[in-house]
Amino acid sequence: MPANGKAEGHRKRLRGRFIKSGLAGFHDYEIIELLLTLGSPRKDCKQQAKEAIKKFKTLRGVLEASPQELQQIDGIGHHSAFGIKLVQEVAREFLKEKIIDKPVYKSSKEIFDYLYHSMRDLKKEVFKVICLNSQNQIIGTADLFEGTINSSSISPREVIEGAINYHAASLIFVHNHPSGNPEPSRSDKELTRDLVYAGSIMRIRVLDHLIIGNNRYFSFAGEGLVEEYELNFLNLKMRGVSEARRRLYRAKLFTP
Questions:
Q1: 205: Cα within 13 Å, side-chain hemisphere
Q2: Quick one: 114 and 238 in the same domain?
């Protein structure tokens, strides 16, 4: 049914506001309303937009909903759902290009934003390795393991061999918690420690390990744990050197 003059005027005002100053000052439902009008240009979409926000709670929740979930809302058809999913995919590709083109060792949030879309609904844990060059640019990613992630399921040797094949200078690890709670388990901490130690031996630095949960993440680097493991390894190395020197000194003393 064609929109009446009042609805048409409302839609024009929304578009005018967007063209003038972007999304600044927009409510979440107004952003969704703009997106819905792309698929239904002659229809008043305000009520459907409000229903979408009510159902999925946030703008992000609407963008991450599946087309089938979106079409459960009365008035949102195939074309409108397609438009919303297209915007989501374009945004994902933009974020991907953005993080590939710039240093990321201080940008754990950007890594999360990119990977969250593809990892949030996984039913099993997936362990990813991101390889970076000496300029901290991403040069490769790989899914190394799927299942229950623990210190015995991931081989530090396999991780380091893969990093060497990529000629990586540093690494970022990412895995998900299907439960939605990103807090690290004891096994997660042990695994990260072992990977930091293995990387230190081969002079490949571990920049971070992210655990992705439900709309949030845990950063080992952000919580200071990567630095703690690096210092622990350095202390072990220094103790090992001191012990080797003491043994050599004793051998010299008791050599006839």
A1: 14
A2: yes
How many domains would you assign to the chain?
2
This prediction has a pTM of: 0.61
- Listed in sequence order, the residues at least 6 apart from 103 whose beta carbon sits closer than 8 Å to its beta carbon are 135, 136, 137
Cα 234 to Cα 70, 141, 245, distances in angstroms: 53, 28, 17
Average model confidence (pLDDT) across the chain: 82
Q: What is the pLDDT of residues 128-144, one digit of tens each?
A: 999 999 888 888 888 88
pLDDT band for position 242 (50/70/90)?
low
Per-residue pLDDT band at 98 (split at 50, 70, 90): low
Contact 140, 177 (CB under 8 A): no
Question: What's the one-letter identity of residue 173?
Answer: F
Task: Answer yes or no: is 249 within a domain.
Answer: no
**Residue-number span of the structural domain to which 218 is assigned:** 103-242
Q: Assess whether 205 and 115 both reside in one domain.
A: yes
